[in-house]
Design goal:
Layout lengths: L20 H8 L3 E5 L2 E4 L1 H20 L3 E2 L5 E3 H7 L1 H4 L5 E4 L5 E4 L4 H11 L8 E10 L14 E11 L2 H21 L4 E5 L10 E7 L5 E6 L5 H8 L4 H10 L2 E3 L5 H7 L3 E16 L1 H6 L2 E3 L5 E3 L1 E8 H11 L1 E2 L2 E2 L10 E5 L5 H16 L4 E4 L5 H11 L3 E5 L1 H6 L2 E5 L5 E4 L1 H9 L1
Parallel strand pairs: 3-7, 19-20, 19-21
Antiparallel strand pairs: 1-2, 4-6, 5-6, 7-8, 8-16, 9-10, 10-13, 11-12, 11-13, 13-16, 14-15, 17-18, 21-22, 22-23
Helix pairs in contact: 1-11, 2-6, 2-11, 6-8
Bound molecules: adenosine-5'-diphosphate and magnesium ion.
Length: 436
Amino acid sequence: MRRSRYFLPTLKENPAEAQIVSHRLMLRAGMVRQSSAGIYSWLPMGFKVLKKIEQIVREEQDAIGAQEMLMPTIQPADLWRESGRYDAYGPEMLRITDRHDRDMLYGPTNEEQITEIFRDSVKSYRDLPKNLYHIQWKFRDEVRPRFGVMRGREFLMKDAYSFDLDFEAAKQTYNKQFIAYLKTYARMGLKAIPMKAASGPIGGDMSHEFLILADTGESEIACHRDFLDNKWLENIAANSDLQTVVNAFTEKYAATDDERDEGAEKALGKDLVVARGIEVGHIFYFGTKYSEAMNAIVTGPDGNDVSVEMGSYGIGVSRLVGGIIEASHDDDGIIWPEAVAPFKVGLINLKTGDDACDTAAEDFYQKLQAANVEVLMDDREGRAGAKFADMDLIGLPWQVIIGPKGVDKGIVELKNRATGEREDVSPEDALSRLAG
Ligand SMILES: Nc1ncnc2c1ncn2[C@@H]1O[C@H](COP(=O)(O)OP(=O)(O)O)[C@@H](O)[C@H]1O
Ligand SMILES: [Mg+2]
C-alpha cells in the first residue's frame, strides 16, 4: 500500500476526549473515529487489525472443533420472553419496535437465539456434542461507555455456545475452550490470566474471566506471581493432557475484584501480585438454565428426554485491539506484535522526488509485495522527521529506511520498532530477513 493513497488520517496532537493511551493512540493513528458515544467507525488500518485478531480467534475455535456460523444482530423479543431475560435484562438492552409494532431488540448476546436454532434441529444424543460460534456485533447500552473501543456500546464479540449430553462431556468442552483461549491470547503476544469468576445461578467453579494486566485496566485483580513467569507458563502449556493443564492454571490463586479472598492472599505472602486488569474473555458453564426454560431436549441413550448441558464462551474482539495497545506501546506510539500488525513493514522513502531514492524504494516495495510481505510505503513528500514520527506512531514491527546516502552506498536501514535497533544492511539482506 502506498501511503500517498491510503486513507490513514493520523493526528499530531493528542485528542482531548481520550483518557487512556490506547484510545489516544487509536485516534492518533487513524484507526477509528467516534460516531456517537461508544459507537465507532473502523477506518482501513484499524479494520485490518480487527480482522487479524478475528482470524486468530477463528483459527483457535476451528482447531477445537467449534463451527462458525452467523446469527443476526436484531432478534425478536419473544425469544427472550421464553428465557425470562426480556424483563430481567434492564436498560442495557436496546429495544426496538418494527413497523408492525413487534418488539425487537439489538442482541447483547445470543444464548436464546442459538438455543432456538439448536432445539429445532437436534433431537437425539447421537448428534451431540455441538459447539457453534459466530463473530458478530453486539449492542449494550452501557451507562458509561468510555476508553474508546474498550468499553463501547457497539462492540465485536466472538461468542461460542456448546451443547453436551451430560456434565462430564460439558466439562471436557469447557476445558477445551479454556486452553483454546490461552493459545488465542498467546498468539496475539498477550499474557492473559484465567481468573475464577462469579459463578452463575447453578454454582460450581466453571466460570473464568481472562484478564490481561495493564495500569489502565478497569478492575483490580490479585494473583500468584507465577502467572507472570514465562517459564512456569511454558512448562504447563507443554503438557498435553487437558485436565492437567486446566488444573495447573486453576490451582494457583487468581481473582478479580469481587472474588478476592483475604485469607488466601495473606497466605501467599511475597508471591502475591496486586494489579489492574482488562477482561478480554469470559467462559461460562451454565448447565440446563436455557435448555430447560426453552425446551432444548434430546432423547438420551436410554430413550428418556434430557435437557442439554450448555456453556457460552465470549472473546472481546474489538476490545482486544485497545487491549493489545495498552500492553504494547511506548512514548512514540503503538508497537504491534507481528501477528496482528496491519502491515509487517513500513518503508520510508526519505527523499521522494529524488530519482535514485524513488527507484530504490519502488524496487524494494515491489520485491516485498512479490514475496507476500505486507508493506506500507511512505512515498509522500515531506520532512524526514515527520515521516519517522508518523511511522513510529502507527507502530509497524519493521521499518526500512531508504535515503540518498544509503542509496549511494547500496544499503538500506532496517529498524526494529520494538527494540529501536537500527542496522545498515544490503537491500537483499533486508529482503531475505523480512520475507523469512
Ligand atoms: N461494552 C463492551 N465493550 C467492549 N467489549 C466488551 C464490552 N462488554 C463486554 N465486552 C467483551 O466481551 C467479552 C464477553 O462479554 P461478557 O462477559 O458477556 O460481558 P461482561 O463481562 O461485560 O458482562 C468480555 O470479556 C469483554 O472482553
Ligand atoms: Mg464478563
